[in-house]
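Researcher: Here's a chain I'd like modeled. Treat it as a single chain, no partners, no ligands.
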Amino acid sequence: MWWHIAAASLLLASPGVISRRVWPAALAGVGAWLVMIANILYLRTFGSWIPWGSYAAAGNLADFTGAVIDSLRPADALMPLILAGGLLSAALAPRPHMRLRHMALYAALTATTAAATAWTFNKGEPLGSKLSDLHLNHKFHALAASRYSLSVVTLYEALSTPRLTADNRRRIGRAMKRRVTDLTSANFDNLVVIFMESLEGWPLGLAVEGREITPRLNAMMADPANFSATGLGNDTGTGRSADAQLLLLSGLIPSRNRIYAFAYAGNSYPSVYHALKQRHPDITVRSFTTDHTGIYNIGRLAPQLGVDSLYCWPGAPGAGRKGRRGRRMADGPFFERVAHEVDSAGLWPEGSHKVMQLTTFTCHSPFRTVDGARLNPPEQLPHDLRNYLRVVNYTDSVLGNFIDWLKSKPDYARTLVVIMGDHPAFGSERRKELADHIDAIADESVPLLLLNGGNTPANGPGRQIDVYPTLIRALGLGDYEWHGFGTPINGPRLQRTEHEATLSALILSHNLFGRTHESSPQISESDR
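Model: Modeled as a single isolated chain. Structure tokens:
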């Protein structure tokens, strides 16, 4: 790492050496500082450095400004001082009088440190393995800041896509032949998928000072008509919410360093929706969200996953155009608007096959409380934990109201309702601190409920990658070509696929599911 720092420093100063002026080196230093700060804040918000493909979509971070601001720490005030000190020293330094022999010596030092960096990175184990270890264990590395230079990220990006060898092709072929057995379709006519933003598993069934945090979800779990698993292992990567949709809908494992929604938006994806359309060509898939079409590129990605009509409502009631970049619609008004839209437009005709997807937002950090939140957690709990418990209690209540609306439909008994937390709310470092207050927080997992899915016991600890084959089994979609990498949570287990993350990366990076779906969904985007 010290060789790397020396090489990076010499490279950053090289514009000043070549031009024989101070300002080009200072400008390069400012650029490097901005990249490092951006990556540190991105790490705290999303648990990864910024993938190359995401710099072009940097505007999306405006929708997560609250989460970024919430991640700031008092010590961060020193960061601008470091930059200011560097610029001041550059301004006061005498103008360099570099002769050709000085430049030659400088070039030799740069080449030597760069070569030493490459040698030490490759020593002992492959470079790709070492970079991957640094990427995944960033929170425990003493020199984390130095790793956010463009050189390290570029190296990692260049080495992160595996080659499509003959052996890998054979492995993918075997994965394609895996089949879920003991299909248990209950003749479902309808499917409703609800992605619950940042809903973790530990609040379900937990009480604070005698009050249940999630009374409505607890009642759903107790219903013998439903299946529940509160401890699904988290498989999402840098893409977070988008990754959860890939896992549940397509049965593919997202990359840890590349957001597939931007890098592979044009791919042809397998999905539960495509499988249902193969059986019932008349199905229309409608997706409702408080995101706008640019968030995680959903405007382009939706048709690839089988969505026909995309309803984007990013603005809170009364927020006007500012709603796109400011206050989001809370889950209560969101569920109410979905119900009103469906009823007023006649989107739930009895006797036909219907598919709906809903994506909530209220539980997103920094956990801003909303009108209607009734739980008042103990004052001695940390501020962010108290707010999280309040928003979870709130969204549990309004979700229960939406399920009541679904139950009012004559064909509710033939509707499979899937409720899943998309990803954990807290990072591992913060989780360790909060576990001193509530032990259950140490378990980094998300919940899954299948309403009308039968109250059969789980066959062991599951992961998010297991939800897709669970749905293939529950919906009786055995004739679809892709059954996923996972194994059903409540049915006969399948043998795990070796190197499944690598194989999934190959499928994504080489678009191995064939042609692109050229159709575009009907998009309804409104701030009102």
